Amino acid sequence: MKINFSEPVLPKSGALVLGVGQGKKLGAVAKEIDKASGGAISRALEVSSFEGKAKQSLEIVAPAGVPFSRILLAGTGEKLGEREQSELGGRVLAQLNRSGEESATFAVDFGGRNLPGVSAEIAFGALLRSYRFAKYRTKPEESAKPRMASLTMAVKGAAAARRDFAPLEKLAEGVRFTRDLVSEPPNELYPATFAKEVRQLAKLGVKVEVFGEKQLEKLGMKALLGVGQGSRRESQVAVMQWNGAARSKQPIAFIGKGVTFDTGGISIKPAAGMGDMKWDMGGAGAVAGLMMALAGRKAKANVVGIIGLVENMPDGNAQRPGDIVTSMSGKTIEILNTDAEGRLVLADVLWYCQKRFKPSFMVDLATLTGAIIVSLGHEYAGLFANDDTLCKNLVAAGEATGEKVWRMPLAQPYDKMIDSDIADVKNIGGRDAGSITAAQFLQRFTNDVPWAHLDIAGMAWSSKEADTVPKGGTGYGVRLLDRLVRDYYER
Ligand code: BES
Ligand code: MN
Ligand code: ZN
């Protein structure tokens, strides 16, 4: 969908969108049209239950004598903060699509003093909601046609609005990249093809390195390699660097679990729902999308992104329950369940990251445990951290963007649950506290560097749409971490 900004105008066709505040407060444009049409808008408001609350809307046929087809009154509610602005944009876009419009003009004459900023956020939300993954359809779905092709934001100060929108558009491109990666089927997206996608970031100025199995063996990443050894697809690790700050500035690091398909391995998963495990690379997808966004908007920060890419398959060469592997850190791991594979991948990538880059902190994202969905459902990602400041900043970034996180505990008694009888650590801790013991496992490979772990198993994919997120791959994590970088590390 194309987004334009223009000084206030009325559309020549399509829909006109107007914001109406709580208590049916009309803006200047609405008042003008109401007057010129002999009260068409006031009459519609009188006979409807629409009050201008957030999430309410009212569609009316355009009055005689104007060239556009309809007016969509969108409730702006009482408080229209930044997050509410993008959510409004998302809802309006969805409604325009449902009504069959192909173009619309959104008159932004509400929302406080910074009208350009408000219009940019609304446009951002609309752009996020307009996402579709239609690559594998050979003919369009009946229900999805026609769809909005262009949205014009009509606002006083269009040039300033365009400037405000530029970094948000880059952010939306990062989110789209993540959603595309997450949506790809696992026969198409496997470690090597994922790495190939990531190589494209070089065009944006990201330094990209990709290691194959030979190099990973040299590095000693036997925990990661063990997961991939039952797959015909070669395991990969991709390292991305965006250097937007002074060379002397210590980098920050983001790490992603990229299991392109998780059958469970020899500890194989049940058939029902196994297809979901194509998005077991959602953490890696988020890191890739984040790097695209940061480079796209030329963030003033030094950022490292590292993703561990493997396919967890059962075959004659697959890892067995009972195997003991030596991780890159030197710690030995007793593998008691080959389905607890994400932590094995991350163990080596976390260790490698802190050793090579000495980052001031690391954040990992992983669709790590089904147990986090039992705890938090699909509303919050689980946050585990050994650092209170990092934790606080992540929580704040979550509230600001709507990609929410909830802190879960780390503590010594949980750590004890993963002590092995015959190796340094075992890869499962029993039935209780499954997300926590998984996080404790990761912590053993952080070397005490400030670190946070986001268990996003409940967030990477959605079976129902939200204001700025269509069904399917959500792109969760990109907005959250872009915000973390922007608000706390880009000064
Ligand atoms: N990828 C799964 C976790 C998962 C489950 C993500 C559902 C998204 C939706 C992970 O590799 C896994 O299999 N975890 C096991 C751990 C167990 C064997 C200790 C789990 O959660 O059952
Ligand atoms: Mn698994
Ligand atoms: Zn997994």
Question: TL;DR?
Answer:
With 491 residues, the chain is of the alpha/beta class. It has two domains: 2-157, Leucine Aminopeptidase, subunit E, domain 1; 171-488, Zn peptidases (Aminopeptidase, 3-Layer(aba) Sandwich).
Task: Describe it.
By secondary structure, the chain is α/β, with parallel strands linked by helices. It has 2 domains: 156 residues, Leucine Aminopeptidase, subunit E, domain 1, CATH 3.40.220.10; 318 residues, Zn peptidases (Aminopeptidase, 3-Layer(aba) Sandwich), CATH 3.40.630.10. It has 15 helices and 20 strands. The protein has an 8-stranded mixed β-sheet, sandwiched between helices. β10, α9 and β11 form a beta-alpha-beta unit. α3 packs across α4, α10 packs parallel to α14 and α12 packs across α15. The model has no long low-confidence stretch (mean pLDDT 97). Bound molecules: ligand BES, manganese (II) ion and zinc ion. The site of manganese (II) ion has 4 residues, from loops.
Name given to the CATH architecture of the largest domain = 3-Layer(aba) Sandwich
Looking at CATH, which topology of the largest domain would you report?
A: Aminopeptidase
Number of helices: 15
Strand content: 15-25%
Which secondary-structure class do the elements indicate? alpha/beta
Biggest sheet strand line-up? 8-9-11-10-14-18-15-16
Q: What's the gyration radius in Å?
A: 24 Å
* Domain module count: 2
**CA distance, first residue to last residue:** 33 Å
Q: How many strands, what sense, and barrel or not for the largest sheet? A: 8 strands, mixed
The total of beta strands comes to 20
**Shape annotation:** elongated
